[in-house]
Each structure stands twice: as C-alpha cells, then as structure tokens.
User: Fold this.
Amino acid sequence: MAITKEKVEELSEIARRIRRHIIEMTAEAGSGHPGGSLSCTDILVTLYFHVMKVDPKNPNWPERDRFVLSKGHAAPALYAVLAEKGYFPTEELKTLRKIDSMLQGHPDMKNTPGVDMTTGSLGQGLSSANGMAIAGKLDGKDYRVYVLLGDGELEEGQVWEAAMAAAHYKLDNLTAFVDHNGLQIDGPITQVMSPEIIQEKFRAFGWHVIDVDGHDFEEIAGAIEEAKNIKGRPTVIVAKTVKGKGVPYMENQVDWHGKAPSREQAEEALKSLI
Amino acid sequence: MPKIATREAYGEALAELGEEIKDIVVLDADLSKSTKTSVFAKKFPERFFNMGIAEQNLMGTAAGLATCGKIPFASTFAIFATGRAFEQVRNSICYPNLNVKITATHAGITVGEDGATHQSIEDIALMRALPNMTVISPADAVETKQAVRAAAMLKGPVYLRLGRHPVETIYGENYKFEVGKAVILKEGKDVALIATGVMIAEALKAAEQLSKDGIDAMVINIHTIKPIDEEVILKAAECGSIVTAEEHTIIGGLGSAVAEVLMEKKPVPMKRVGIRDVFARSGKPEELMRVYGLTAEDIEEAAKSLRR
Assistant:
C-alpha cells in the first residue's frame, strides 16, 4: 500500500519515541547495544506500524506475519516497538536485562510476547525465517516472513547456507533486510572482514535485491510493497543506515555498538530526540 | 534373528508415522539415502526438504518450521548433527524448547571404514549437556521404531542416536518402549551391566559368559540417557558393582551419567567400558569394536575385575 504524508509523520513520531526508549532502556540497564538498535529503528517501525499483519492481543495468531530479528543484539529496538504496539506495557522496558525481567539481553520467544523467534547468536535468524516461510507455503497460508540481518552478521557462513536455501525453495513470501550501517564491534565492516558487495552477493544467490535509504519511510515501505509482488524468489532490502541514528554523538561511532550511555549521556541524547 | 540397522528401522517408522501425523516434515543434508529419510521422501515428497550439505541451516530451518506447529525430523550423520551444528541445536532449538527431532545416524565407531572424521563418539555428551533435550539411544530395530514414534509424540527437542551397521534384534514385537524408563533385560545379583545402543547385545553375551563362571549379572538397557532412570540405577547398585558399556567416549556419556547418579545417591564401585579418550580409525565395525575394547569380553573382564 502506498504510504501517505500523514502516515510518514505518524511513523516518524513513533520512531522518535522508540529511539527515546532505546536510550532510556540501555541507560537503565547499564549495558546493551544502542548503536545498532538506533540504526534499524525506522525499518522496524515501518514493519510493525505500517506493513505487518499482527495482533498484539493474540501474539501467537497463526495467520500473523512473522518477524525474526536475526541481529538479536538490537533487542532494545524490538522490545520498544512491541511495547509501543501494545504487546506489553511500556513500563516493562525499564526492566531490560534485569533479573526477573521478561526482556532478556537478546530476544527470547518463550519469555516475551510478540517475539517470533529466539535469536542473538548471529547468523541463525535467516534459517529460522526460511523454516517459517516453508511452513507458510506448506499450509497454503498467505502470511509473510520478515527477517532483519546486520551487515557484519553477513560474515557468518550460515547466512549464505540459508540464502542459498531461500532461493532454492523459491521463498517469495520471505523478505530480508540488511541493516547496512557499515560498522561492527572491531571497526568498519570493510576493514574487519568485508561482506561487500552485499547486493551482488545476494543477486548471485538468486535473490531480488532492492536498495533503500534505511531512514526513509517512503522508500522502506515502497521496497516492501515491491517485494510482495516478486514471485519465485526471495527479496532482500539492503537498507543504508547510520549506526546510532538520531543521537548526534553516537552517529557513525563504532564505540556505541555495545556500550550503554551514562545517565548524563542519556539526558543529552534525549535532548536530540524531542 | 536377522540383523537390521537402526537407521533402516528409522526410515520405515518415519514413512509410517508420516501417514498418521500430517505435521511431520523431514529435513536432510544430502544424506537421505544413508539416513533412510529417502523412504519418507519417496512417499511424501512435498513434506521432505533436502537442505544440501549445510547442517547449520538444516537445524535453523527445522527450528523455524517448529515455531509454526510442524514436527520436523532433521537428519544427518551424528558427527555433523551434534558437532557441526552444535550451537544451532543449542540456541535455535533447545533454548526456545522447540519441537525438533534430531535423528542422527552413523553414530559411534561402527561407522567403520570412513574413519575417525565420521565416527561420532562424543555426541551423547554434547546432547545431554543441553537443557530441554531428551537423548535416546535405541538398541535395535524394534526399539528404534517405537522410539521414533515416542519422539514424535513428545513435545520438545529430542536427540535420537542411530547406527549405520546392522545389529542383532533384542526385542520381540510385544516390547513396549517408554521414554525415560530403562529396561531390565536380565535379573541378577552379583554385578550389574548397564549398556546402551549396540552395546546391549554385547552386555547380554557377557552376562551369559559370566554365568558360566557362577557370576549372576543383571543386564539393563538404558535407552533414554536423558532424563536418566535413576530408580533402575539405584536398583542396579544393590548388586554391589556396576559396569557401563557404550559405543562412545567414556567422558560424558552413559558411564558418566550413571556415575553422576551413583555418586550422589549410592556410590558403588564401577567401571566404564567405552572409547578411552582417543580418536578411532578406519576398519570393519567388528574389528574396531575389538581394537577399542567394546566387546562382550571387555565387559566380562571389567565385571570380573570389580569382584577381585
């Protein structure tokens, strides 16, 4: 469906709230991964608030669209989105990573309503998404499966095993996103272990490839729509993103991959997210 | 009794169950002719998925199918299922407690001529260390058929350990398999022989030999290594000494599991017959069993040494 100007404004507002949650949650937890959570926020917001057929009151609804956060360390973004969507109260967010919390450091489908797959160990999510897409085809259901991978994550061999399989089984009900922020823990992906050229690799594996600006709701929504109409092969949307997006001092800074802001830093970050 | 490989029984059982349980799907990694999932594939091609030589993706895909209510049987050789894809089994299957049945064939050294790279001798240790996992190691074709059915009925991850090589049939057709419930194959009072898988046949032969020397040995089949039947182990301990026998390294397998129970509840002298912390080699299954100390004579000797 085409996206209206009003919808874009609404999504921008939700994304702003999600980013505030990410900062508050990680600051409160004293650990976590703000950089990669902020980079994928707009993709998650588009999926959950514009595209996906889900019912927060019935998280296990068999007909629902599925989402797998293969880059599980972006859990703060997913939890914030699920809370804003109504799966659980936003007050839960401040329990992130604490003992007794249902919000584990990485997504746990058994503990958190709305989490469709347990992830966190990189490289595994695309395989599970394939399984969900195959099940959908077997059962003749029209739900779609979305999966989000990190660009550094593409260094895992299993991703390419799964990429091969998705094309082999013609999983056109599957759409993958690559959160292409260019940074991983040890530095720029091109310096650590380049997965480039990402688009060419997926193309060579038999995928339909779309490039988007990962912070442009119109482009993201348009690409998802295009993917729905591609038959006989899976689609990957390579989303150019900015790690730490929305918090100026975190943007494109590799240090903010896996470090929580202090109280003062959080206050400063929140000032940019008004 | 004819000798039948447990993998053969698996192929038949799966094809039968597929008729009955429509949610069963089967995945393999280019070894369907060897694991015998090809029997299912022929009957239900639409529910069979060859994932190619990619075991990590095999396990992950099975996990995804399970989240949608399918009952996936994921098969390949034991070495790859539990070694190559260990962390996928841990994080994508056991941690979320998904209903995936990992049915691995070609376990142990009776793989034979392929040699050490293909001989899985640490899979029981790896699989039983995982929370939520049930570990089953059937002794023969009859037990395998029932274990496959039981695994399908059980909710949660199961590791089924099967072999390549034909083995003697121990059980009659009226045998009733129950997950977690060990079977006393022969009562006895002097020493208890606790075995699993292909070592059951050896333990029975050892008991026969021991009886000739006036030693009355109890023989127990622990087909479910996890959860282990503590009750039967404590009963075995009443014999005063225990010998365990497994086609697996003595580190972390059946012997270790039995020792864990005994040490906490009722310590008695015991010996572990198994592969003694070495990689094996190429050879005929029977030759390997002899060279690596996995014969009835080895069990007999261990039992006698405990009584000296």
In short: The two ends of chain B are 36 Å apart (CA to CA). Chain B has 13 helices and twelve strands.
